[in-house]
User: Fold these one by one.
Assistant:
Number 1:
Amino acid sequence: MATRDWKHEYQLQKKRGEDKDQIERQRARRAYDKKGVERSGKDIDHITPMRKGGKSTPGNTRLRSRSSNRGDNK
């Protein structure tokens, strides 16, 4: 499995104008993938929502079913 240059990818994301929240979500996905966690069919839930200043740190994220996560975020 080839590794990706995440620093380079981050610079490209900034150039494309992707917002900070998109980049934070990607950071959370990469953290779960690095641990080898199977997350298909699940959403990464931020315990303290990003809109309220929450970050994509291991202590602030958890995997939840899509219906549960999206039901809470209305």
Number 2:
Amino acid sequence: MSKNKKILIGIFSILPLLLFVVYLVSMVSFLIHFFSQIAVRGKEYDLFYAEFSNMAGMIVTMVLLGLLSLGVMIYFLVHAINNQFLKSDERLVWILVFIFVGMVSFPIYWYMRIWRTPEVLNTT
């Protein structure tokens, strides 16, 4: 695998974590804004109609996060299954880590099993 492809996969492995941070920041800012509006306007403040535009950014971020995480997980699962450098027990551990830990494991696997894997020379 070329170095450029390894770097691109590394970027995609970190993106779910970055999108999760963006989602958390947007959620906190939404909640701060929402509760400040309740304090100003009182109990009659309607969440759905007044704050839907602020929620749209969170919804888009969450959809992107879900799709990207699913795509990266599928790629890493296929890579771990087909990786000739992994023993069968280590392969099983990585598959379980991907399924149960999720996006935290993507950059770890990328660094340990993609970035540090030596280049295989094609001698044909």
Number 3:
Amino acid sequence: MLQAAIRNDKWLRVDTWEAEQTSWTRTKLVLDHHYEDIKKRYGADTELRFLSGEITSFFRETGISL
């Protein structure tokens, strides 16, 4: 449904990589996957920034590793 909803959008895309994994995937691995894809699309000098106060606080408070 998401793919159909954004079919004509130039800015948005759907990546099913995380959903296709056989088990829970660490956030760091998911971010690495997206970073590699972004570098391929936009060049090696592109940066990926993880911005989310709530998620970052959750990991810090629970001691869960990214």
